[in-house]
Amino acid sequence: MPVTGADSAQAADRPTAISILIVDDEDATRKLCRDVAAESGLRARTASTTEQASEILEKYPVDILITDLKVPELGGFELLKRVRETYPQTAVIVLTQYGTIESAVEATRNGAADYVTKPFHVSELRTKLDCVVRSLEIDQENRILREQLRTRPGFGGLIGVSPKMQRVYRLIEKVSQHNYPVLILGESGTGKELVARSVHFSGTRRKEPFVPVDCSSLVPTLIESELFGYVKGAFTGAMYAKTGLMQSAGSGTLFLNEIGDLPFDLQAKLLRALQEREVKPVGSNDRISIATRIIAATNRDLDVAVRQGQFRRIFSSVSMSCKSRCRRCGSAKAIFPSWSAPSSRNSAIPMARCKPSRRTPWPA
To answer: 7-146 maps to which CATH number?
Structure first.
C-alpha cells in the first residue's frame, strides 16, 4: 500500500516511533495490519502465536498490541490478561470474527482499548489505530509535563527550588484536580494569590473565570450583596437586580483574599453556601445553585481566631501554608535570575553585582 502525504507528515511529526505488535495466525491479516501500521509511521513486529508474542514482549517495548481472540496456544483473552497485568501501559486492540461481538465487548471490559471485527476495511482499522496512537501521545505528553512541573524551578507564577517550595508545587498539583474549598495561610507578601491562581489554572477549571475579591477592601454592609447578589428593591437604591460574585464566577474559581476580615455574621452564610452549594440573594426568597469553587486566603491565625470565637471553622478540607522567603532562602538563587533575565539591560545597577544573602532577613 502506498503511503499518503498525510501519513508521511504524521510520521515525520512523531518524535519517536511508536511500536506495535500484531498477533494473528493468518498471514494475510498480519500483513494487512503491518502495512496499515507502517503507513501511520509505526514500528511493527508480528507473531503468529501467543508464545512468539510473549517472547517479543519480553525483548522489546511494545506500545500497542493488536491480537486476534482466536490466536493459537493461549488465546487472545489470556494474552490480553497477561499484558494488562505485566505491561499496563500497552494499549490493546482485539480482532474478532463477525458475529462474535459479545467476545469483543467482554475484551474491552477487561482492558482492551478497542476492537475490530473481521473482515474489516482498512479505513476502519486505520481510524481506530490512529485514535489509540493519539491517546498514547497525549498520555506521554502529560507524563513529560508532570515531570517538568516536578523538576522545574517554579510553578505557574511561583518561583523557588527549595524542598518546601517543591512540596507546595506538589500540593498545588494535587488539589487542582479536585473541587473542594482550599484555604491558603501566610503572611502578607508571600504570594497567596499566586498560589490560588496556580491551583485554578492547573486544574480542570482553567478555562473558566478566576474572580479575585479582597474582603478587607469591601464595605462590611455591602459584602453580602457583593457575594450573593440582590434583587430589585431589596434595599434603598437597588433599582435593578445584580448577580453576586459567587454566581457570576460560574464554574470557575472565586478567590476570597483576607477572608479573616469577613464579618462574623456573614461567615455563617458563607458556610451554608459552601455546604449547600447554593446562595440566597439579598431580598429574595429563592435559592440559586452555584458551581463555583472557593479558594480563600488570610494572613491571620484562624485557629486562634476560632478559639477566641472571632471566626467560624468554615474550611475543613485543605489548607496550604505560604512561608515568607526569609524562611526559604534557597529560593533566592532561582528568584534573582528571573528578575535579571528580562530587565538587566535597563537596570541602573548591574544585576551581576546583586547577590542574595542568606544572612539578611527577606520577609517578602
So the answer is: 3.40.50.2300
Query: What is the pairing mode between strands 278-279 and 229-230?
Result: unpaired
First to last CA, the chain: 65
Q: From its phi and psi, is residue 109 left (phi > 0), alpha (psi between -120 and 50) or beta? A: alpha
Q: Structural domain boundaries of the chain?
A: 7-146, 161-341
Yes or no: say if 71 and 51 are a contact pair by the CB < 8 Å rule. no
CATH match of 161-341 with 3.40.50.300: yes
Please report the DSSP string for 44-69 in residue order: EEEESSHHHHHHHHHHS--SEEEEET
Residues in the chain: 364
Handedness of CA 70, 73, 74, 79 (dihedral sign): negative
- Is this model's pTM higher than 0.70 or not? no
Cα 64 to Cα 84: distance, rounded to the nearest angstrom: 12
User: Alpha-carbon distance 264 to 277, whole Å?
Assistant: 20
The residue to which cell 430589585 is assigned: 232
Q: Which residue has the cell 464579618?
A: 263
What are the residues whose beta carbons fall under 8 Å from the beta carbon of 197, sequence distance 6 or more? 156, 157, 210, 255
Query: Residue 96 corresponds to which cell in the numbers above?
Result: 474478532
3-state secondary structure of 262: coil
Divide the 364 residues of the chain into consecutive groups of 10 and give the mean pLDDT of each group: 39 62 92 91 92 91 91 88 89 80 81 87 90 86 63 58 76 84 84 87 87 84 86 84 88 90 84 88 90 89 83 65 52 45 43 46 46
DSSP state of 189: T
On the CB side of 164, CA atoms within 13 Å amount to 12
d(CA 320, CA 334): 22
Nearest C-alpha neighbor of 23 from the set 83, 95, 100: 95
Matching fold, domains 7-146 and 161-341: yes
Residue ranges with strand state E in the chain: 19-23, 43-47, 64-68, 91-97, 114-118, 154-155, 158-159, 182-186, 210-214, 229-230, 242-243, 253-257, 278-279, 288-289, 293-298, 318-322
